[in-house]
Design goal:
single chain, mainly alpha
C-alpha cells in the first residue's frame, strides 16, 4: 500500500466516524423535539402503525342542518359579522360555534376574511 492511499483510507475512516457521530446526534435531537411537542410526524395514541397524526381525515360530515342554517342566516343578515355576534344572534356557545364554522367553511357555505364571516357566493 502506498503512502498516499494509506492517508486517503485514514481520512475516509475519520469521515465515516464523524458521520456516525452526527447521525447519532440527529437522532437524539429528533427524540428531544418529539418529547417537547415539536412538529414531527407521530402516531396518535390508539392509532395503528403507519397512521400519522398529521394525516388529514378522509371522512367529512356535514354540519348539523338546523344549527348550520341558523349560522348561515345570521351571516347573510349581517355580512362581516364576527363570532361573538353570531353567538349572540343564534344562542350557540362559542366552542361549538367554532366547530360548525369550520365545517361550513369546508363545505363552502361561508367564507372568512380575518375575523369576519361572509356568505359564500
Amino acid at each position: 500500500m502506498t503512502k498516499s492511499s494509506a492517508v486517503l483510507e485514514k481520512a475516509c475512516n475519520l469521515l465515516k466516524g464523524r458521520l456516525e457521530e452526527v447521525d447519532d446526534e440527529r437522532k437524539r435531537l429528533e427524540r428531544a423535539a418529539r418529547e417537547l411537542g415539536g412538529k414531527t410526524a407521530r402516531r396518535a395514541p390508539g392509532r395503528p402503525r403507519g397512521a400519522a397524526s398529521t394525516k388529514p381525515s378522509t371522512r367529512r360530515r356535514r354540519a348539523r342542518a338546523p344549527r348550520a342554517d341558523q349560522i348561515v342566516d345570521a351571516i347573510a343578515k349581517e355580512p362581516g359579522i364576527g363570532t361573538s355576534g353570531i353567538s349572540k344572534a343564534t344562542g350557540i356557545k362559542s366552542n361549538y360555534l367554532y366547530q360548525l364554522l369550520g365545517k361550513l367553511q369546508k363545505e363552502g357555505r361561508v367564507k372568512k376574511r380575518g375575523r369576519q364571516y361572509f356568505p359564500a357566493g
